[in-house]
Give the backbone structure.
Amino acid sequence: MLDAYVIEEIRRRERQVDDRPVVEIPLPGPPPEPPPGEPEDDSADRGVVIIDYG
């Protein structure tokens, strides 16, 4: 069984970890949906990848 001092020290350290500031990274939102009925433009989503193993 642990001493009361050890238990209080563990609780104090856990509270310190919880009190640390958290950095939130701004994430871009999803791209806007095209209005219904308009043809979709997939040209921006296409690309070419060339892998030369030679």
Notes: The helical segments are 4-19. Residues 4-19 form the longest helix (16 residues).
